[in-house]
Amino acid sequence: MRSFHSLLTVGALALTTLLIAFRADEGFPARLIEQLSAYMRQRPTEKVYVQTDRDVYLPGETVWLKGYLFNGINHQTDSISRVLYVDLVDPAARKVRIHAQLQATGGYAPGQFTLPDTLPDGTYVLQAYTSFMRNYATDYFFTKTLTVVSPAATAARPATATGSRPDVQFMPEGGTMVAGIQGRVAFKAVDAQGRGISVSGFVVDTNKDTLTGFASQHLGMGFFALQPVAGQTYTAFVRTGDGPLTSYPLPAVSAEGASLQVDNLSSRDKVRIFVQHNFASQTGAMTLIAQSRGMVLQTAQVPLARKSSSVQISRTQFVEGITQLTLFDAENRPVCERLIFVDRNEQIRIGITPNKTTYKKRERVDLTITTTDAAGKPVPANLSLAALDNQLTPDIDSAGQTIVSSLLLTSDLAGTIEQPGYYFDTTHIDRANKLDVLMMTQGWRRFVWADVLSGKVPPTTYPVEGGLSLTGQVRRLNQKETGSPVKLTFVVAHRDSTREFFTGESDATGRYGAYDLNYVDTATVMIQAVKGKANRDLTISLDQLLSPTVTITKVPYNPLEIRRDELAEFIRRTNEYLAIERQIRNNREVLLKAVTVRAKRAEVVDSRKIYGRADATIKFDQTNTAGRLTVLDVIQGRVAGVQVTGSGFSAQVQIRGAVNFSGAVAPLFVLDGMPVDLQTINSLSIQDVDQVDVLKGASAAIYGSQGAGGVIAVLTKRGSPNYDLTKEAAPGTLIAKLPGYTPVREFYAPRYDVASNEPPRPDFRTTLFWAPMVQTDATGKATVSFFSSDNKTTVRFNVEGTTVEGMPGIGRSRIRVE
């Protein structure tokens, strides 16, 4: 299993090479590389992407999805985190409507959830994250927009408020306008829904002289050149369309400072960086660092003796995606920053080849899927495929988010990126220019340089989860901290009647945690805390009972732009199909209720026992427990060959004949199937014990060498598969039903090449096929098959996926059904 630290080893080796290259530059550059490397080893990152079968649903439908988990530094598939949390957030109501926990294996987490029939129509946000990602700002959670339409919905978009003042921000390239240095000022204009809007305008100085005009280039973004003068203030007058002019102040001019300008477009081979400054000092040097996702790619020193300098970096030094350029002054303070995007063409090509281009209704469709690199070499990849009826669910957002745009762009940027897919669509010849403008207007703040340079690493509050967790707090009745550790007993009752029993201890403040649990669907959990001789003065809280926090700060705009006739057809056909599905379920329930089954009740297997019949069994009841303090007090004198010496908490036990050359061998103590020590057995309340089984000699051989001294197996009432935990009402005890991993259902796709006893029914599926785990082999090939529906339509295929090394790709194709 790879760990975050082992994944950073490659980056550390690369950093060592850079250190050698800059050994001649003693001091800050080398120390900066070392400190950033150390910081990232302690603060690794994760990324998540989720593909859904589509973007528009009706209440009652199932959302089919697959989560991809990546190491945030090198983009390899993340096999460390095993739990992916998925929330369906209602921004209007500011609440989480659905919360699911998907089990991730090898970096992939398929699953689904069903939309309630009563879910209001509107725009929802699908939010996905791991526990470890909660150590960072929620800006880096994965989000995408889902639209839910009701049968009464129309295709008309809600009217957008007109005449309202647009939100326009001005951002000097590098971060600051410096007196006497000509630079570029980027801007971004959005409406009340957060969508980019086209604007134009001009800039005036304090004397009301017009200096330059400007107009947005793409989604409200653009830039203009300006050489500010010390003592002047600048104002931009902006209009949308033919509307009135609105004034906005530009950032203040710094009398002294540095400027950073980047040419990332004119050369295929190099990135050129221009550094200017007006510092009075002519001694020393500034430091320029290029880093991507915490990996240092290049550094250079810029002498202060030159007011203007140029640094050229070969594109071979960069990795695919976003790179952050930071300029530090002679005092080692960050003074300028600029993001650039470097396209190295490191994406897989996904081909989708049907066995024919035109099909009949209910005909079998065979697809061959191929994955290759940019050079055409086959590469194995893990993919997810959705086959959609294009008539019922049109492709409403061709520039929407994909695994490529998410992994390489949006996962490294805070805030909402409108139409992220546009920048990766090769049909847009100007996409590089517009992507560069986006880099000038979007911030990146996953870490703070001051923390890196000071060696201050924020604490890791949320651990990497190898399974489900139970965490919470034990407090006194007055809600004060316990002041010392508290012993805890956990019982997890699964739906299949099996039980897990384990013990633990809180820290001195009462915080506790049980990790790496594995259960599906809903389980009943009981937690009991004991401090001292009783638990009456303790209360227990469980973090998993708290509602997920809603972190969406802005309601995203609704991208639904389907023609009225298309929307009506989608609603009509989908409602028909849902009605048929409901009727089939109702019919099956009626048939099941009419069946009488006569059979002997199967004996529930007690999973706590790995042995057969015990040599002796002592059942605990009021007769033999009266006046007794510990388990050993109860069994004392009741089993031949079992010798108990002492009493109370100091009692010892020996099974006769359990000796070797070293002397007597102590028995193995087992509590509800789990080996424990004698102290744990002595601390049990005898009122919680159901029975004790004693195994001697050959009977204990199943425990191997551990059972050489015999076995004393203690079975508690709560650990029994027949025990109802919900009837517990003891002080210091918490009982709750908790969701486990969401059970993964197989997508139902009818087969029309086999005979069926069921009467034929209309087939107008919106999603014809969903395959979340398509794996191409070493030759880069995989095949899938499904059947077309009753609709004469175009079927659209959306395929997304990645290699183990983290090279993403998308594939699109269509067929006709006539």
UniProtKB/TrEMBL annotation:
Domain TonB-dependent receptor plug: 618-711
Recorded GO MF terms: endopeptidase inhibitor activity; siderophore uptake transmembrane transporter activity
Ranges for domain Macroglobulin: 47-131
InterPro entries for the chain: MG2 (IPR002890), Plug_dom (IPR012910), Plug_dom_sf (IPR037066), TonB-dep_rcpt-like (IPR039426)
GO terms for biological process, alphabetical: siderophore transmembrane transport
Record localization: Cell outer membrane
GO cellular component: cell outer membrane
Pfam families for this protein: MG2, Plug
UniProt-recorded name of the protein: TonB-dependent SusC/RagA subfamily outer membrane receptor
Membrane disposition: Multi-pass membrane protein
Keywords: Cell outer membrane, Membrane, Receptor, Signal, Transmembrane, Transmembrane beta strand, Transport
Organism name: Spirosoma oryzae
Family, per entry: Belongs to the TonB-dependent receptor family.
Predominant subcellular localization, coarse grouping: membrane
Gene3D superfamilies named in the record: 2.60.40.1930, TonB-dependent receptor, plug domain
